[in-house]
Design brief:
160 residues; mainly beta; Chitinase A, domain 3; Thrombin, subunit H; 2 domains; five-stranded antiparallel beta sheet; four-stranded antiparallel beta sheet; binds zinc ion
């Protein structure tokens, strides 16, 4: 069986920056399960895994366009008083905030000038090349329910 649309694929992966820093890894924990063809993982990694079989190892460098996208826009100015008073703010800190219509948005502090905080709404890995080292550890057919939901079910399922 090889990886194609409609398969639930289980992988161990390590994500490294161009500077050699490990950004994320499943090694030492549970492998990641995803539904192939359902945009569960970044497009460049999904493309590199197509056609692979259990036991294959894949090394791939994904461009920002095939990863978390290019960096867009300028940092937005937010008054310091919009942040909790007791939190020491610093560049690089990540925040989640709820919009008036109930969506959760993530942003990162770019810089702080006096009483103004400049926040960046890009994904922290936007604009970055992503170096993936992957081992394929499982492939199975997705159930009809998984296909309908667009993600795998079972152990480690974050959706239910
Ligand atoms: Zn589901």
């Amino acid at each position: 069986m090889s990886i194609e649309n409609g398969k639930v694929v289980t992988i161990h992966y390590t994500l490294t920056s161009d500077e050699g820093e490990t950004l994320d890894t499943s090694v030492g924990g549970d492998p990641l399960a995803y539904l192939h063809g359902a945009n569960n993982i970044v497009p460049g990694l999904e493309a590199a895994l197509a056609g692979r079989a259990i036991g294959d190892t894949v090394e791939t460098r994904v461009s920002p366009e095939q990863g978390y996208g290019p960096r867009v826009g300028e940092p937005e100015a937010v008054p310091r008083v919009a942040f909790p008073e007791d939190v020491e703010l610093a560049p690089g800190m990540l925040f989640n905030a709820e919009t008036p219509d109930g969506r959760v948005v993530s942003f990162q502090i770019d810089r702080i000038e006096d009483e103004t905080v400049y926040v960046d709404h890009n994904h922290p890995l936007a604009g970055a090349h992503l170096n993936f080292s992957v081992e394929v550890v499982g492939i199975r057919d997705a159930s009809a329910e998984e296909q309908a939901h667009g993600h795998p079910h079972g152990p480690g399922d974050p959706h239910h």
